Amino acid sequence: MAEYIPSTADWVREQVELYEGSGGSAGTTLRDTGLPVIIVTNRGNKTGAIRKTPLMRVKDGANYVLVGSRGGAPTNPVWVYNLRADGSVEIRDEAEVFSMQVREVSDPAERARVWDLAVAAFPSYEDYKNRTSRTIPVFIAEPA
Ligand code: F42
Predict the structure, then answer these.
(1) Structural domain boundaries, residue 17
(2) pTM score, two decimals?
(3) Total domain count for the chain?
(4) CA of 79 to the centre of ligand 1 (A)
(5) Residue nearest atom 34 of ligand 1, based on CA coordinates
(6) CATH at 126
(7) Contact at 8 Å (CB) between 37 and 81?
(8) 123 within some domain
(9) pLDDT tens digit string along 73-123?
């Protein structure tokens, strides 16, 4: 069994510990925004380690939209490369854990549709998009 290596960002590691440690009854929002967060368990594409990545919850029916915003930083969050290498993930949404298959969104019409869902769930995504010349990667997770 691969080992879990926590995020190097303390606030992220702590959120994962609270979220999972409480079985999804605490630590389920982005700080004091009240906006819901999911935990995406993914496989490190270099280490093979288990990685756990909190992301804003963006629902699209039974699917989730995963946005590689990283606050509008000039470079992608590296979990993007994990998902590109292995699309089999688990998504924890509060008390529920789902096995999901992830695919990257490339079709412009689909991207526009799910981007609107993302911004409706978390308006800051639009600010992040305007902060960087990078095209923010967007993935759809569908029930496996
Ligand atoms: N990030 C987003 O991009 N979008 C969101 O909507 C979002 C919401 C959110 C809500 C709550 C919260 O606590 C955090 C949130 N974040 C959101 C932050 C998110 O959880 C990630 O921390 C952030 O996106 C950065 O992702 P990252 O994968 O770049 O993480 C860094 C800090 C990290 O952990 N790096 C590790 C390290 O050791 O430096 C390596 C991690 C890794 O996956 N390594 C791979 C491996 O093989 O193990 C290799 C990856 C490669 O190819 O280099």
Answers:
(1) 10-143
(2) 0.98
(3) 1
(4) 5
(5) 7
(6) 2.30.110.10
(7) no
(8) yes
(9) 999 999 999 999 999 999 999 999 999 999 999 999 999 999 999 999 999
